[in-house]
Amino acid sequence: MDTPSSNKASSVAALQAVKQKSGKTYGQIAQEAGLTNVYVAQLLRRQAQLKPETASSLRAALPDLSEELLHEMMQPPMRSYDPNIIQDPTVYRLHEAVMHFGESIKDIINEDFGDGIMSAIDFYCAVDKIKGVDGKDRVVMTFDGKYLPYTEQISEHMVSRLRK
């Protein structure tokens, strides 16, 4: 019996095969499609929904994408993750970095913006490679999220209570 996770796994496998056959990197596909490299990776892992207006540029970058795969990519995805992924050293180190620096990042967000958070929905993310001052490769990750202030819970502003 097919389950949503088995359907997703087979779709991701098919999408990754199209990428591999193209011989292109996420960055190359992103540049051709006018997207960020992380967003392209999300699309090809069914972690983001392909918008109809973007389908033609993605198809131009990956001509072997079938109509069926494009249609599937336009459906809302099951945004999930395998809890075992934390065992991957790259993912673990990213988690470790956020945990290590998170409290300080929160302090700076609160100091500069007020009491609120960074959106993970109205959010852009990119990974870039640069040379450090010592000439060694460095990873630059950009998290670009909309600021969302916490709201004061004033009862007269609660629309659902005004419908009496």
UniProtKB/TrEMBL annotation:
Pfam families: Cyanate_lyase (PF02560)
Active-site residues per Swiss-Prot or TrEMBL entry: 93, 96, 119
Protein EC: 4.2.1.104
Transmembrane intervals: none
This protein's UniProt keywords: Lyase
SMART domains found in the cross-reference section: Cyanate_lyase
GO MF term (any one): cyanate hydratase activity
Broad enzyme group: lyase
InterPro entries according to UniProt: Cyanase, Cyanate_lyase_C, Cyanate_lyase_C_sf, Lambda_DNA-bd_dom_sf
Reaction(s) catalysed by this chain's protein: cyanate + hydrogencarbonate + 3 H(+) = NH4(+) + 2 CO2
Domain Cyanate lyase C-terminal: 80-153
NCBIfam families xref list: cynS
Family membership noted in the UniProt record: Belongs to the cyanase family.
Function in brief: Catalyzes the reaction of cyanate with bicarbonate to produce ammonia and carbon dioxide.
Protein name from the UniProt record: Cyanate hydratase
Species assigned in the record: Forsythia ovata
